[in-house]
Write a structure and sequence with these properties.
Elements lengths: L6 H13 L4 H4 L4 H7 L1 E2 L6 E7 L4 H19 L4 E7 L8 H13 L3 H10 L1 H7 L2 H5 L5 H13 L3 H13 L7 E6 L2 E4 L7 H12 L2
Helix pairs in contact: 3-10, 4-11, 5-6, 5-9
Length: about 210
């Protein structure tokens, strides 16, 4: 017996390839929980999880990212030892910090968070003075991606993820950025606020991994 497909079924069948295409995720609304995953690097099954509450316009966050987190990613995240989670904690004292967080979340939804994060920190002084994020990110996002990112930033739908991170930071009594929290075997430790050096963090992580 042949089952006949109605108009709705036929329409879905025709559109299915588009709905499952790589760019489909960028076209739909992504939840705060999904964005958290998209802003994380490494394996969720890693023995250590590090959450970093950051403000993209914070000079100390830029320094911590470049001098501590970059080698951490290369030596511990890539090797499956650390799951690194970015948390947005834009401070009111920085005029463009929340807008930067929106662009970072837009980049995450487009599947390019790591490149956007690196560029936002590298060009912090440029966009921090002008607020021109499209010029700053033009080297890592295509014109089509920039257009989509702008739409996401202006839609307001990314604020839920940012506000969720802020609320979580407040519950952890974050008072300044960057603030790092290390979780190992169910126990979470708050590192000294303001960032830590890579040699010190490496020593601490190696100690935990031997436990």
């Amino acid at each position: 017996m042949i089952r006949r497909i109605g108009f709705v079924g036929l329409l879905f069948w025709a559109l299915a390839p588009l709905l499952t295409a790589p760019g489909a995720q960028a076209q739909r609304k992504v939840s705060a929980a999904e964005l958290t995953t998209l802003k994380a690097l490494g394996s969720r099954s890693a023995p250590i999880t590090i959450e970093v509450f950051s403000d993209f316009q914070c000079p100390a966050c830029k320094n911590t990212y470049e001098s501590t987190l970059r080698p951490l990613i290369d030596n511990y995240v890539v090797t499956g030892k650390v799951y690194l989670v970015h948390r947005d904690y834009p401070l009111p004292i920085h005029s463009y910090s929340k807008v930067a967080a929106r662009w970072a979340n837009a980049g995450a939804q487009l599947g390019k968070f790591a490149k956007v994060e690196q560029t936002l920190y590298a060009k912090q002084e440029t966009w921090g003075a002008s607020g021109n994020f499209e010029a700053a990110l033009g080297g890592v996002l295509t014109p089509a991606e920039l257009k989509r990112a702008r739409q996401l930033v202006e839609s307001g739908q990314l604020d839920a993820a940012i506000d969720s991170d802020i609320a979580l930071g407040n519950s952890k009594r974050v008072s300044q950025t960057p603030s790092l929290f290390v979780t190992h075997r169910g126990e979470t430790t708050s590192l000294p606020p303001g960032g830590v050096t890579y040699p010190l963090l490496k020593q601490y992580l190696d100690y935990l991994l031997k436990q």
